[in-house]
Every structure is written in structure tokens, then in C-alpha cells.
Amino acid sequence: MSLIKNEKLLSLILLFSVIAIITAYFIQHILGHQPCNLCLIERIPYIFSIIIISAYLFIKKFEKITLIILSLTFFTATLISLYHFGIEQGYFEESLVCGLDSGINELSKEAILNQLKKVPVSCKDVTFKVFGLSLATFNIFISLMLSAITTKLFLTYEKNK
Predict the structure, then answer these.
(1) Domains of the chain
(2) Is the model's pTM score more than 0.70?
């Protein structure tokens, strides 16, 4: 009975992760809001969860390991989002992850001109808001919720067998 419940929850998390990635690309490519480097990094846990859950649903093995990996993945996503939120609010300084301080490695005229054409997006600048909240703020709550769900599934795995 628990296996079916867990599979349904994992399928919902898979669906949610796919929707999150599609939404991020829609905002970037259709609506034209350029993401900062941290925004791009915040997509990685969703892509990773899509791969992990798809692999689990395909082979139907290693459910407990899948749950702990997903729990750690979404916990990490929560920390990344909290860090991004802290930069947006001015609690933290932008780091090298944001890439604004990256120097030009090539000194050719073409390379310098190409580098100048790229307008870097600062991690502290919020270019897209929903209900007055940045996407990093939403990601904190979503990642925390998904982390809690997968952790609960992991912790109650043996009891529900």
C-alpha cells in the first residue's frame, strides 16, 4: 500500500519539478527576463529530481535511497534559495557565483567586444516578481516543502512497508 502512495507522491513531485523548469524557461525565453547565475543554479535541483524520480519510476528499485537523495537535494535547494534571498535583501554580499566580478581572460579585440555585449544580471536585482515576491522567495517555500515531504517519506519508509 505504501509503495503506491510513495509512487503517487513521487510522480507529483516529478510533475511539479517539470512545471517549475518549464516555468523558469518560459519566464526567461518568452517573457524575456534574464536570470542571474544563482537563478540558473536554483534550477539544478529540479532537473536532478526529474532524473532521479524518472529513473526510480522506470526501474522500481532503490526507493529508500531515492527518497534520501531527493530529501538532500531539496534541502540543498532551500539553502541556495535562502542565500539568493539574502543577497536580494542585502543581508549577504554577492559572491563569485554571481559572476559580476569575472574578468576578461582573452585580450583580443573581438573577445572584449563580445564580453561587453553580454549584460550581466546581478543576483541582487529582482527582475521578475509574483505577488510582490521574487522567485527565489517562492523557491524557499517550495524547496522546503518538498524537502519536508521527501524526508517524511524516508523516515516513515520502514513503518509503512
Answers:
(1) 2-93+103-155 (1.20.1550)
(2) yes
